[in-house]
Write a structure and sequence with these properties.
Layout: H1 4-11, H2 24-27, H3 31-35, H4 41-49, E1 53-58, H5 64-71, E2 79-83, H6 91-95, H7 97-113, H8 117-125, H9 149-157, H10 164-180, E3 184-189, H11 203-219, E4 223-229, H12 236-239, E5 247-250, H13 258-272, H14 282-294, H15 299-315, H16 323-336
Parallel strand pairs: 1-4, 1-5, 2-3, 3-4
Helix pairs in contact: 1-15, 7-9, 7-10, 7-11, 9-10, 13-14, 14-15, 14-16, 15-16
């Protein structure tokens, strides 16, 4: 096999460790598929459609964000995910229910304003625009084009609340509007897993889970999904919200070496249309699987090593990624760390 395919894989960032958000769903291989058990994506879907409150628990880089992107992709019929980012927000937004509610309304209103009447008609005709190999969702979520809901959300957002209670009521109004359109509203916070500092409880963990999430669970007629780092389990701030976050879904460790091989093969297929065996020796696949095992199930680090091995193979002008390229990448990143 020519080294041309390796170059194509490199150019397409086939093993990109942190894909752009709009590519996460397309690059995700469901854990249910990898593990042969309907305990992750299917469990989340069941809980969400029942209006449940769910925490997705996993280590850094384990695949929480990509799993949530896949679960709430546009073709997930009947769901209206309202994604509210928090990782880069002011600590008051993270720890005060009223501030968080205001942020949530502002976030969804900003997306609603991106839809003109002309764009709404286009989205109703075709909810997604796709590249040939990657299902890339462009612009606001497709559910915002449902029956004038974007304009209704803008109307709510134009109010001038004066208290935390009124801000929370505005979020509640948005969720009720979504439900009235026959959709299941889902408040999604997929980046609340970045606040542990050296194993010591962070004030943000305590404020977010014990105050903000508790208030949202008690006030909103919606499913709620929150990503959390597995290190939160023993923190009092997280434990204070466990009784309102009724369902916990743990990101599973994938079977080796087959699970890692399937992920690598999927990445190569959508990037180049080729097969994994066209770009990587079997011994190299096994070496990448060992990386996953030795680094706590971090798919992000595993893909980082695979990407570095791909670059090394391209620079050596060889036809296939070999185990030596993987091992060299591991040594490189160990030295940098």
């Amino acid at each position: 096999m020519s080294s041309d395919l390796l170059e194509r894989a490199r150019a397409a960032a086939a093993f990109e460790p942190t894909p752009p958000r709009q590519q996460l769903a397309a690059k995700h291989v469901p854990f249910d598929t990898l593990c042969g058990r309907q305990e992750t994506e299917q469990a989340l879907d069941r809980a969400v459609r029942a209006g449940g409150r769910v925490v997705i628990m996993g280590g850094s880089g384990s695949g929480k964000s990509s799993m949530l992107a896949w679960a709430f992709r546009d073709e997930a019929a009947g769901l209206a995910p309202v994604r509210v980012p928090v990782a880069a927000e002011d600590p008051q937004v993270v720890s005060q229910p009223g501030k968080f509610a205001a942020h949530a309304v502002a976030t969804v209103a900003r997306e609603a304003r991106l839809l003109s009447k002309r764009e709404t008609r286009q989205l109703q005709a075709s909810t997604r625009q796709e590249t040939r190999t990657l299902g890339v969702t462009l612009g606001p979520p497709a559910w915002l084009a449902t029956g004038g809901i974007s304009a209704e959300i803008e109307t709510v957002a134009d109010r001038e609340p004066r208290s935390a209670t009124e801000h929370i009521e505005m979020v509640r109004n948005v969720m009720e509007m979504i439900s009235a359109k026959g959709l299941q509203p889902v408040l999604v916070v997929d980046d609340a897993d970045q606040w542990v500092n050296g194993g010591v409880e962070d004030d943000l963990v305590r404020g977010f889970f014990s105050r903000v999430i508790r208030a949202m669970c008690e006030s909103l007629p919606a499913a709620i999904v929150v990503a959390a780092d597995s290190r939160y389990v023993n923190l009092p701030g997280y434990q204070a919200a466990q009784n309102v976050l009724g369902t916990r879904i743990d990101i599973p460790k994938i079977p080796l070496p087959d699970g890692v091989a399937r992920i690598l093969a999927h990445r190569i297929r959508i990037a180049t249309g080729g097969r994994l065996s066209d770009v990587m020796e079997e011994s190299a696949v096994e070496a990448v699987s060992t990386v996953y095992e030795k680094h706590g199930g971090s798919l992000r680090f595993t893909m980082l090593v695979a990407h570095s091995a791909l670059v090394a193979a391209c620079e050596a002008s060889v036809d296939l990624i070999a185990a030596r390229h993987v091992n060299a990448a591991v040594a490189l990143w160990a030295e940098i760390a």
